[in-house]
Design a protein that fits this description.
Blueprint (H helix, E strand, L loop, with lengths): L3 E10 L6 E11 L2 E12 L3 H8 L7 H26 L5 E4 L2 E6 L4 E5 L2 H8 L3 E3 L3 H5 L9 H7 L5 E5 L2 E8 L2 E9 L1 H9 L10 H4 L5 H8 L14 H14 L4 H21 L9 E5 L6 H10 L3 E3 L3 H20 L7 H4 L9 E3 L2
Parallel strand pairs: 1-4, 4-7, 8-11, 11-12
Antiparallel strand pairs: 1-2, 2-3, 5-6, 7-13, 8-9, 9-10
Helix pairs in contact: 2-3, 8-10, 10-11
């Protein structure tokens, strides 16, 4: 492919409900190699009412209410992009929007990210790509994760790329193929219980640090069927709400002890995946991004259990890597290059997911 350059805005909203991440990047492909520069990035919080709907409210809406919110949330995204462009003085070639996941049941070929790309394009007057996952689902894939294409092409210096958000997911090269999958829930569970005591999250893991491990609960968590499945595999809120919450609450533990046990579970599952792989000379390098990278106690537990050198990048990369890679997916779409890897999702073939809205 000839040299290619594009500026793209990526929009990311994760299951941990931290807010909307907006990242504007310039991507270049020269001599077959991709590079990137983050031009500007910013996070936007959600109004409380919108956060409630994105959390669980949308799942119980009528069809009319759902499609109405799909449109209004898309308009909200477009308005935030307009604010962002005005503040930073940018006007990208393309917007790539993840949307916000409401349903994730790939075994039924069901996945829905709310946030109408047409509304974003109409609001911003900039070509917008959204709905990146649906084609992969229809090709028999998980529709997730999508970040590994960015790990492969933009972060190739690392042996493992770990993102810790609502769920933890990992990607790495194995026999010339990119392998990636979800590992376990993390912030989706931690933040859920923190909200019950009036907190948004467990800052630095200080609540969990005060607790003790319940070995019986830890063994039950680690014994769940999902952890014994081979990839490709992915997790959604339905699995957590149906299986994990009832298990955690059945033991009647204090908040400190329950979270301490859950932290150990999350760290142990991450280390189990890494130690099962042949490591390169030395111990290999593990890049950790996502909100969990700021959780000191969680990182301490991963470091204690993992043989790799842990690399915590700049705050900008930690906070905006997923939005950066969705911007990259927009760039790949415009370059007519697959962003969904069959080796990662389990689809029958690599594919170019997404729907383009252009004025």
């Amino acid at each position: 492919m000839k040299d290619f350059q594009i500026q793209a805005i990526g929009l990311m909203s994760g299951t941990s409900l931290d807010g909307l991440d907006v990242c504007c990047c310039t991507f270049r492909q020269q001599a077959g190699k991709w590079s990137f520069h983050i031009d500007c990035a910013k996070g936007y919080s959600y109004p409380d009412a919108m956060k409630q709907i994105l959390g669980t409210g949308a799942q119980t809406m009528s069809a009319l209410e759902f499609i109405t919110f799909h449109s209004s949330y898309g308009k909200f995204l477009g308005e935030r992009v307009n604010e962002f462009m005005q503040e930073f003085g940018v006007h990208p070639d393309i917007i790539a929007s993840h949307g916000h996941t409401i349903f994730h049941e790939p075994q039924k070929r069901i996945m829905y990210q709310i946030g109408d790309g047409a509304a974003i394009a109409a609001e911003t007057r900039i070509p917008t790509v959204s709905d990146f996952r649906r084609l992969d689902i229809m090709l028999g894939g998980q529709g997730a994760p999508l970040v590994p294409i960015g790990d492969r092409l933009l972060f190739a210096d690392y042996d493992f790329c770990l993102n810790i958000g609502g769920f933890s997911n990992i990607s790495f090269e194995q026999d010339g193929r990119r392998i990636a999958f979800d590992i376990s829930p993390v912030n989706y569970v931690i933040n859920h219980y923190c909200r019950q005591i009036g907190l948004e999250f467990d800052r630095d893991g200080e609540i969990a640090r005060q607790g003790n491990i319940c070995q019986e609960l830890l063994d039950e968590l680690n014994g769940m069927d999902f952890y014994h499945q081979s990839g490709p595999k992915s997790l959604g809120r339905e699995w957590v709400e149906t299986l994990v919450y009832p298990m955690l609450e059945r033991y009647g533990l204090s908040m400190e002890n329950m979270l301490r046990t859950f932290y150990e579970h999350a760290a142990w599952q991450i280390s189990r995946i890494i130690t099962a792989r042949p490591l390169p000379d030395g111990n290999g390098k593990l890049l950790i991004t996502g909100g969990g990278a700021f959780n000191k106690f969680l990182i301490e537990r991963i470091d204690a259990l993992c043989p790799c050198e842990i690399v915590i990048p700049s705050r900008q990369i930690i906070e905006y890597k997923e939005a950066l890679i969705f911007a990259f997916l927009g760039a790949l779409y415009m370059a007519d290059t697959p962003g969904c890897l069959a080796s990662v999702t389990g689809a029958t073939t690599d594919n170019i997911g997404g729907m383009l809205f252009k004025i």
